[in-house]
Every structure is written in structure tokens, then in C-alpha cells.
Amino acid sequence: MNIDARELIILSAIPGIGSQRLRGLVNHFRDTHPVFQATAADLIHVPGIEKTTALSIRAFFRSEQYNVAKHNADNQLSRANKSGARILTCWDKEYPTNLMRIYDPPPYLFVRGTLREDDECSVAVVGTRSPTDYGRTLAEALSMELAPMGVTVVSGLARGIDTAAHLGALKGRGRSIAVIGSGIDLIYPPENKQLAQRLIASGALLSECAMGAKPDAINFPRRNRIISGISLGTLVVETGIRGGAMITAATALDQNREVFAVPASINGTQQSGANLLIKEGRAKLIENVQDILSELEPRLKKGLPTNRRSGREHSPPPELTLFEGKVYHAIGSEPTHVDLIAMNAGLSTADTLVHLLSLELKGGVRQIPGKFFLKT
After folding, report:
1. Same-domain check for residues 22 and 73
2. Three-state SS for 182?
3. 347: which residues sit within 8 A by CB, 6+ positions away?
4. Most buried residue, 92, 202, 260, 328, by most Cβ within 10 Å?
5. Rounded-to-integer distance, Cα 341 and Cα 337, Å
6. What is the CA radius of gyration of the chain?
7. Per-residue confidence of the chain (376 residues) as pLDDT tens digits?
8. Residue 100, in any domain of the structure
9. Which residues are within 8 A (CB) of 42 and not within 5 positions of it... i.e. 6 or more apart?
């Protein structure tokens, strides 16, 4: 097939031609160019194109709208080139396999960065823009554990949980993909511009929106279907009952994908969406990364990457002192707060912090925000 990105953008501007009809047209003619020459009689043989739509398509090519669409397509390609983006179509080999399997995959995406075949093993981590310290820390910690196991972390680059998820994946030296609800040349929120550059360097930034499109509210529900669609499962970490993460969870279920949720405090009302998902049986309760992996493993054709490991497989650094050893073994398989480490080790918090610093210098543990510690 010969898919011309400029022609694809022009065809997407035809009134009444959504993503499904656009894919149908290109698939039928095995090319973008023949659509421009097709007669109404030719077009009605395309599934989903009835006589009225066929006549509308032909009328478009004779109208001023066609000239406007050509100018807009040239402008889009120029802006994409200047911002270092490219257009990836659903007929390209690089197009995400998981995304192609949803009901309504975007015919094309604007991409900055790289997509890889092993990104098929991915988990979306989503939640509120106003998380508690607990939620932010947990989202980062879980993402940081998923990353070295070869799981790509997908989120939306928004403030709060999204940002924590991306940062966690980067700290875990793994891959992360951000799907944004604006033009790929317009990073929102602006304080995440540096984070976006880091994601481009070690993953990808994707958008279905036109170049220059503002982050309007209308863009985000459709953006959310890409976040869930590109992933094998979606993890919800703190969200309100009417939060955007609830829409992502609902979309994931519609796409026959797994949904996970971390239980929130029963004393809070603003972040009770995750609890509702669990209570209604729409999400599986997650306490650690292994809970996620055990659910997703059957859905992976080749299994999880071979570098997958559990907390029990960590080996302590050599030459630990007696008290360093106590502190090291007091850390669980998941990120553990310093107070709990101190209690498990039978030491004061002050002494525990001294030994944790020593363990960090020896490469045995790593600190994450909120005074949580993780074995390396």
C-alpha cells in the first residue's frame, strides 16, 4: 500500500468522514490517491459509504473546502517537520499493535520519539491531577518497578498522577509513552516541557490532535481511548468519581483490557473513584506490582521479559555491618516507608536513616519521594 500522509490529512477533512470511514476508503482502494479520482459509483462499493456520503465526497473535491484542506495539510506537515515530529499511519509497521486492536484506532498519529515492538508489553498508569502525597508516591514507585521489568509505562503527561508515573518509569530506566490532548508541538502543562523532552529521548510522545491544537477539554476523552488502547491494562491510582481516569477505565473495559486500581483511604471523598471501581468489580485491587504482572502474563504472547524479577530475588550488597544488614532486611519487596523500616529493624528512625544512607552509597537501596526506600 502507498499511503501519502498529506493525502490522508486532506481526506480526514471531508465532512462526515470519521476515522472508520477513512480507514475503509484507504483499505478498499489500497492507496490514498485513488480516493481522489473515485467516482460516486466507485465509492458506494466501499463498506460504510452509502450514496449520500459518496456524493458528499465528490462534492468536497469540487468545493473551496478542498483548497482549504490542501493548505491545512501543507501547514500541518511543515509544523510537524519544524517540531521534530512525524506522522505514523495505522498502515505502518511501527503503529502500536495493541492500538490497532481497538474499535476505533486513529488512522494516523503525530509522533515524537520512537515506538518499539516491545512496547506491546505496556501498562497505563492514570489518576487525578491533584493527588495526595501517598498517591503520587505510589504511582511513581509502581511505575519505577514496572520499568526495569520491561514494561512500558503509558500516561497522559498531565499534572499529578500522570507526571509521577512518567517520572517513575524514567527513574527505573525504562520506557514511557505520553499520549497528549493537544498538538504535539504544544506541551501542556508548560512545566512538563522538560519531562516531555526526556520522554522523547527514551520513549515517545503521541497525539491524535492537529499541530497547534490547544488542550481543550473536548480532546481528552478521545485521548484517553488511546492511552488505554495502547496498553494491555490500565492502573488507576487515586481519582474522583467523575475524574478523567474513570473515563479511561471505562474505555479500557470496553476495549476488553484489564483494569486495576489501588484502594484509596476510606476517609477521603475526593479520591474515591478507585474504591468504587473495586467495589463494583470493574477493577482488580492491586497491592503490588506482582498483582499486575500475574494478571497480564496470560495476555502476552511471548510472556513477560526475561529480566522480570521479584523483590525476593534482591541480593544484599557485600560487607554490610550488623545494623546495615538489619535495616536492609527490614525493607519489604515493595517501597517501604522509613518509619516501618525502623520498626521492623528495632531501631530509632534517626539511626535507621543513617544506615539507609550508607546502604544507598553501597548501591543496596534507593530512596523515592516521601521517604520510601526500595531495594535495588
Report:
1. yes
2. coil
3. 323, 326, 327, 355
4. 260
5. 6
6. 24
7. 789 999 999 999 999 999 899 999 999 998 999 999 999 999 999 988 999 999 999 999 999 999 999 999 999 999 999 999 999 999 999 999 999 999 899 999 999 999 999 999 999 999 999 999 989 999 999 999 999 889 999 999 999 999 999 999 999 999 999 999 999 999 999 999 999 999 999 999 999 999 999 999 899 999 999 999 999 999 999 999 988 999 999 999 999 999 999 998 776 656 789 999 999 999 999 988 989 998 888 765 454 544 444 434 566 776 788 888 899 988 876 677 787 888 788 888 888 998 998 898 888 888 876 677 888 7
8. no
9. none
| Three-state SS at 123 | strand
User: Are both 117 and 253 inside the same structural domain?
Assistant: yes
Parallel, antiparallel or unpaired: strands 233-237 and 122-126: parallel
Q: Indicate the burial class of 227 (C-beta count within 10 angstroms; 0-12, 13-18, 19 or more).
A: buried
What do you get for the CA distance between the two ends of the chain, in Å? 48
Question: What's the domain count of the chain?
Answer: 3
Rounded CA separation 155/251 (Å): 14
Q: Count the neighbouring beta carbons within 10 Å of the beta carbon of residue 330.
A: 20
Whether residue 34 is contained in a domain is answered as yes
The C-alpha cell at 201 is: 529521548
